[in-house]
Design a protein that fits this description.
2 copies of one chain form a homodimer.
Chain A (H helix, E strand, L loop, with lengths): L4 H16 L6 H8 L3 H8 L2 H24 L5 H17 L7 H8 L6 H22 L5 H22 L4 H16 L3
Helix pairs in contact in A: 1-2, 1-4, 4-5, 4-7, 5-7, 5-9, 6-7, 7-8, 8-9
The structure holds a DNA duplex (30 and 30 nucleotides).
DNA sequence: ACTTTAACAGACAGGTCTGTCTAGTGTAAG
DNA sequence: CTTACACTAGACAGACCTGTCTGTTAAAGT
């Protein structure tokens, strides 16, 4: 394997933490899957909390890439805004989708761990993106539209996880379209 | 105290489980707050899982009461539908609001505990209520509108918990109103 | 008066968790 | 060749967890 211990740890943590929860999964499971000694984990990430933060930072980055890639497939401002929901549709269609990693981690974490900051950062980025795209799409009140779309976005991930509703993203997308129409002066 | 050990246990569990999570809080904390011996807990609820299920069942019941009370304050079908979001606004305005108890518990729980069934039951009830109210309000496709409103509903609880956005319920309510208008043939 | 019942306090077993520490192994650079 | 470094394996400490068990107390039913 050409990967470093650091990468293998992060990969193992990503899979296990996302699928079973950051609290449920113990250090031993992570190092076993990564094929790494416990001391290496503590030398590399300092603590379990440090590993969790790295996991969330990595998640943030990969979500950012996925979403912006979808957005940049389009030139039309409306299509660019709606592309965020296309990215969401892809995500929840994955066979091992377990909801939003940040929502889940935040529900499990104690308030003093660095988790809340990581989630705030991620959510701030999503909100900012939706606001920018709403503005470019000509929405009358971009902040308001972005906040509304955020409700749909989060609601979709909840419905997908808890009700196994894979069509939620389409529903959110078409609703977003209608809201965008209503919010765009002509 | 005129309450039974059973009630005190449920009250203590409700506060602690909701505020800190079902996984984080241990049995000892619960019985200490309830002022009850450990054996009593196990005689009464069988296991921690049993107590968690009782907590969620109780939560389901109290949510049901809160929401139906708001709905029944109105006669107008539109107002009845929107009243669900009034109940949500009340909830998230509470100083110790920590999001939807079912979303949180489900994120913490292992898939085989009875938690997933309890959440499915609750969500089924909410969905059914929204469907009925949508139908009575004259929506063209009540199931579809209900599912869309569910996205707003869940999204609101997420925004309230994670972004400390107390205005999310108003936003969801006015969005729901617009969607209802659009979905009602005249 | 006697017995049953429900509750109490708290020790205990057996397991899991995080984090530290010791000791050994391989590898690459000087 | 040797020195430095990164890693491995695994024992260990100390805490916490669920669940069981013993023994005691107090009230209520018969």
């Amino acid at each position: 394997m050409a990967t470093t211990a650091r990468e293998r740890l992060l990969n193992a943590a990503t899979e296990l933490f996302y699928e079973e929860g950051v609290h449920t999964v113990g250090i031993d499971r992570v190092i076993e899957r990564a094929g790494v000694a416990k001391a290496t984990l503590y030398n590399t990430y300092g603590s379990k909390d440090g590993l969790i933060r790295a996991y969330l930072a990595d998640r943030h980055e990969s979500r950012r890439r996925r979403i912006t890639a979808k957005v940049e497939q389009h030139q039309d401002p409306r299509a660019r805004l709606l592309a965020v929901f296309d990215a969401l549709a892809d995500s929840i269609a994955a066979p091992n989708y377990h909801g939003c990693a940040f929502v889940n981690a935040s529900a499990e974490a104690s308030p003093d761990s660095g988790i809340q900051e990581a989630t705030a950062e991620y959510r701030g980025w999503v909100r900012g993106l939706l606001t920018d795209l709403s503005r470019e799409a000509g929405a009358e009140d971009p902040e308001r539209l972005a906040r509304t779309l955020m409700l749909l976005y989060d609601g979709t991930s909840i419905s997908a996880r808890m009700d196994h509703d894979l069509t939620a993203a389409e529903l959110a997308r078409s609703t977003a379209e209608a809201l965008l129409d209503a919010a765009t002066p002509r």
